[in-house]
Amino acid sequence: MEKFTQLRGVAAPLDMVNVDTDLIIPKQHLKTIERTGLGKYLLDELRYNEDGSEKEDFVLNQPAYRDAKILVAGDNFGCGSSREHAPWAIDDFGIRCVISTSFADIFFNNCFKNGILPIVVSPEDLEKLMDDAGRGSNAVLTVDLEAQEITGPDGGTISFDVDQFRKHCLINGLDDIGLTMEKENKITDFEAKRAQSQPWL
Length: 201
Prior knowledge:
By secondary structure, the protein is an alpha/beta fold. The chain has helices at 21-24, 44-47, 85-93, 105-113, 123-133, 164-172, 176-181, 184-197, and strands at residues 6-14, 70-73, 97-100, 117-120, 140-144, 149-151, 157-159. The mean pLDDT is 93. The protein has a 7-stranded mixed sheet with strand order 4-3-2-1-5-6-7. The protein is globular and about 65 Å long.
């Protein structure tokens, strides 16, 4: 998993509440178990017309936000079904941080397991960040995970809380497999001893 220490990039405003995982990545695109290639289907229903053409007025189709790295979203983001394809699609699009006032629990946990930092802020701070994100190509935020701070285009900062274990995992690029492999020496040791004491296994 790619390490997350500090992220600087354009923030896209998605001023909608209750954005569920079916809206993030519709069910017809869940046929793959690969984590790549899903970015083009992110928010499919909002981004494209029925004929496949882009909806020009949707935020991620606007030139200033096509390479957004941060998403500032409304309350209860990621609700609905537990599909892990939702964070896969967000990450594949290039977004590594989602900021909201609240997240659905399963989506929130899946983000951390896939190298995405979900940040919970107060309604007042979200309003400020949504305003910052509305500045088009000037909507640049810096998210410093180590300092637990978001710095806006005007230099103002907002502090945020994060579970320290999850912070450790993101900073060091450790998913569940990575955490297990940190104990590779102990695992190898155990297997060698077991093979000696119980060779029939």
